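Run DNA mismatch repair protein MutS-like N-terminal domain-containing protein through structure prediction, thanks.
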Amino acid sequence: MMNDYKIKNILESLKEEVENGKVSLREAAVELHKAGWTNFIDIDATRNLLKTRNVTGNGNVPGVSDMMGKYREMKAAHPDALYIFRNGESCELYEDDAIAASGILGIATAERVDGQGKGVKELRFSFRDLDVYLPKLIRAGNRVAVCEPNQTGSGKRV
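Sure, done. The structure for DNA mismatch repair protein MutS-like N-terminal domain-containing protein is below.
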């Protein structure tokens, strides 16, 4: 597993190269995969990771992505539920939810860097596999919420 400092440096350089058009998102995803950030090449996750922005309000911490802030907000309100977030063609679970689901589903967690440079446990699988994994989580006695991104009238995803 890579250390946080190395991951942060790779992300900063890739973000700059993607913004300047020197590297495509696909090439950035391949680089992150080679560096050990993910078990597979995921363009949607790369796009979201490189676009992590500062958010405030609703209890979100500055430097935390919208989904991560939403996860923490919902987890504080209902700590007994597992939250699965749809992110493009992927499903993601974070922190304690990722660890709990990992044991049930037999999928290894990965560690990614949040907007504050901290490592966050993440479990990710294809959205196509949701119908296989969701029943396993429920049969194991978990309350599960599947969270889809919404767009406001201004086009902002929440």
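Strands lie at 81-87, 90-94, 110-113, 119-126, 143-147.
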